[in-house]
Specification:
The chain is of the alpha+beta class and 158 residues long. It has one domain (10-131): Small protein B (Small Protein B, Chain: A, Beta Barrel), CATH 2.40.280.10. The protein has helices spanning 18-21, 36-44, 92-104, 134-157, and strands spanning 10-14, 22-32, 53-56, 62-65, 86-89, 108-116, 122-131. A seven-stranded antiparallel beta sheet has the order 1-6-7-2-5-4-3. A hairpin with a 5-residue loop joins strand 6 and strand 7. It is globular and about 60 Å long.
C-alpha cells in the first residue's frame, strides 16, 4: 500500500505583527463560517487579518471582526461584503475559556493565521493574548537582533 502524501497547509492570510504586539498565550483552531465567494477569494491569498480581533457576543457566539476578505472578481452581483463579521466555530467550553480570559484577565483574542487544512476546509488559528508594553517590544527586538548576530558569528567561524 502506498502511504498518503501530506499536503502542506495553504496559508491564506497571516498576522505577523501579532507576535510582536502581543504575548501569545493559549492557541485554538476554529472553523470559519464563510460564503462561497469568500472561500474562492481566500484561495487567491489576498485576505488581511492584521487589524482584526475576535469577540464573544451576548448569545455566547464568537465572531471575527474587522477581517478583510476582498470581493471575488468573477462573482459580480453574488459577492459578499469585504469587512463583515464572520462567525467562528468552536466548542462551547473553548468559547467559555476565551470569554473568561477576555473578561477577567484583560486579554484579547487575536487571529494568527487563516489557512486551508488537509481536507480543504478554511480554518483560523486564534490565540488568547496580552498586549506588550513598549519595553517588552524593545526586549523582543534585542533578542531577535542578538540571535541574528550570533548566527552570523557562528557561520564565520565555521
Amino acid at each position: 500500500m502506498s502511504a498518503k502524501k501530506e499536503r502542506p497547509l495553504k496559508v491564506a492570510a497571516e498576522n505577523r505583527r501579532a507576535r510582536y504586539n502581543y504575548e501569545i498565550g493559549e492557541t485554538f483552531e476554529a472553523g470559519l463560517m464563510l460564503t462561497g465567494t469568500e472561500v474562492k477569494s481566500l484561495r487567491t491569498g489576498k485576505a488581511t487579518i492584521a487589524e482584526s480581533y475576535a469577540s464573544v457576543d451576548r448569545a455566547g457566539e464568537l465572531f471575527l471582526v474587522n477581517a478583510t476578505i476582498p470581493e471575488y472578481l468573477q462573482a459580480n452581483r453574488f459577492n459578499h461584503e469585504p469587512k463583515r463579521p464572520r462567525k467562528l466555530l468552536l466548542k462551547t467550553r473553548e468559547i467559555v475559556k476565551l470569554s473568561q480570559g477576555t473578561e477577567r484577565e484583560g486579554m484579547t483574542i487575536v487571529p494568527l493565521r487563516i489557512y486551508f487544512n488537509e481536507q480543504g476546509r478554511a480554518k483560523i488559528e486564534i490565540a488568547l493574548a496580552r498586549g506588550k508594553q513598549l519595553h517588552d517590544k524593545r526586549e523582543t527586538e534585542k533578542k531577535r537582533d542578538w540571535n541574528r548576530e550570533k548566527g552570523r558569528l557562528l557561520r564565520e567561524k565555521g
